[in-house]
Write a structure and sequence with these properties.
This protein has about 210 residues and is an alpha/beta fold. The protein contains nine helices and seven strands, in the order ββααααβαβαβααβαβ. Helix 1 packs antiparallel against helix 4, helix 2 runs antiparallel to helix 3 and helix 3 packs across helix 4.
């Protein structure tokens, strides 16, 4: 059995959850901009992944542009500065450290990994840096670092995203366990990159310890 030498964790919905959803924040921003919305604000999962791929290659600004296009297509709205500004404002509010809270048991899980001397990395499809959020949540000292798709230039489930996490941890893919809540982006992507993978549920408690 392969010994786990490093662990990478997904961030959103695996270790932490938003106090307000992107959909809720975006609806409020669109209303404030005078944009009427009569459709659901949640795009299909495949469309979100596609936008994450496209956004990853062009940094935080590209992230905003791609997701502006995603929601514009979803809502059937014409391109406009009002729409772009509303989406940009919503993303900023969604990613604000004050909008995030650690899941119950998440800090304990990170501590258990740290205490046995196994390096941990946080790997997220996210625009910009996760550092302010990790610092605010008190987990930055428990991980080697946090990597985002816009920093790497690749998004999960692309192999390059997982390879970047392994490189930061200083461990080969075969000795790394990736933990996440998405069967495609996290589990299938990690396994295709040669990592071990553990799927966690958003509706069940996190494990107290990880397999060794």
């Amino acid at each position: 059995m392969t010994r786990i030498q490093a662990v990478s964790f997904d961030f959103a919905d695996t270790l932490a959850t938003p106090r307000r959803s992107m959909e809720e924040i975006l609806r409020e921003a669109l209303s404030a901009a005078g944009l009427t919305v009569d459709r659901p604000l949640r795009p299909p999962a495949w469309a979100v992944r596609r936008s994450a791929f496209d956004a990853a290659v062009s940094g935080a600004e590209g992230w905003r542009e791609q997701f502006t296009q995603l929601w514009r297509d979803q809502l059937g709205l014409a391109p406009s500065e009002r729409l772009r500004d509303a989406v940009s404002s919503a993303i900023q509010s969604f990613q604000d450290p004050r909008n995030w809270q650690m899941r119950e048991g998440a800090l304990s899980l990170l501590r258990s990994v740290s205490e046995i001397g196994v390096p941990a990395v946080i790997l997220s499809n996210w625009g910009g840096s996760l550092t302010p959020v990790l610092q605010a949540l008190g987990c930055s000292q428990l991980v080697v670092g946090g990597l985002t798709s816009s920093e790497i230039g690749a998004a999960k489930p692309q192999r390059r995203a997982f390879y970047a996490a392994c490189e930061l941890a200083g461990v080969s893919p075969g000795g790394t366990l990736h933990v996440g809540d998405d069967p495609v982006s996290d589990v299938r992507g990690a396994r295709r990159a040669g990592l071990l993978a553990l799927l966690v549920s958003t509706s069940a408690p996190l494990p107290l310890k990880l397999p060794r």
